[in-house]
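Dear support,

I submitted the protein below through the web form. The confirmation email said the job was done, but the results page showed an empty box. After a refresh the structure appeared. I'm attaching both so you can tell me whether what I see now is the final result or a partial one.
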Amino acid sequence: MQHFLRAWRVTILDRYLVEELGGPSLFGLSAFTLIFVATQILAIGRLVSEEHASLFAAIEYFLWDMPQFLLYVIPMAMLLGTLLAMQRLSGDSEITALKAGGVSLGRITVPFATVGLIVSVLSLGVQEILVPLANDRAAYIREAVIKHLSLAAGNLSAVTQLPGGGKQVTIGGALDAQTEALLNVTVLRYDRDQRLLEMIVSDRATFDGSTTWTFENATTYQFTNGDVSGTLVSPRLQVDIGERPNQVAERTSSVSDPENLSRAEIREALAGTGLSDVQRRSFTATYAAKLARPFAALVFVLIAVPLGLRRVRGGGTGTGFGLAVGIVFVYYVIATMCLSLGALSYWLAGIAAWMPNALFSLIGLWLLRRASAV
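What the results page shows now:
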């Protein structure tokens, strides 16, 4: 037990290597973020000139739209940070000194990989918690503030599965984007045998957060064997309809793009009956891919450690930056191809989603083994 604890305790070497990784990673985060910001400057200008939006509204929309870019920036920053850190340690012969002192390259990789794993988990949290909330706010600013859309009418519906096998169907007549309220809304609740149990009718339902809405002056009709068995009038009734305003609005034109949803929201959509077979395969592939993508940070660390020891050591920051961009480009091209492959069949979804991570991890471990033998 003591040997196990000694093997896993944080040492001075671990702290030193993590500190060496911190500076270059922050530089990479800043550099890649600035690149994404630069690509959006024209978009901001277009919103101001073509949509006649105020500069403040355009910038606010851009800032709320930024969190989804972090999912790509964070792994890229870890890749560049690890490359630059290893180039610095190797160029100053510190790696040679550590090897001479009996520290293996695998042991040197451990603190880098640990940071990569922690960052991957944090990226998953950003994807599942921060990005959906930011997308909600960005959608509101786009529709209500920039495009000045008030009412959206169409197929405003949401289907939620209930405990015990039943389902809840929410139907709205219109969505007021400025106040985030559904108008002329009806909620139907069915049991597992598709028998109507309850119907809630309200002129207005206001979004409260998460997926909960407050129904104003709601009338609830309870059914037994197809007949009304009770009626209840509530001035304010909270109902979880399973969707947020931007998801309801997207249904006016088409089914939501799974890339704009969290894994929890995709899981809810898959549990419903509103998707075609092609859409269901696409949602399944994206659901698996959204779990695999954040771990690109860990994968990039594994491949960057041995590459930082190679001939690029004399190339400086510019060479490391170019190498990082090349690796990222190849990774995401393969990831895009695998996403399309995963959408072909349900059983392929999970395999295809993790294929890029597995391929790059194997390459990184192979390079690491070769570098350790030198």
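Response: this is the final, complete result; the empty box was a page-load delay. Residues 14 and 111 are 6 Å apart (CA to CA).
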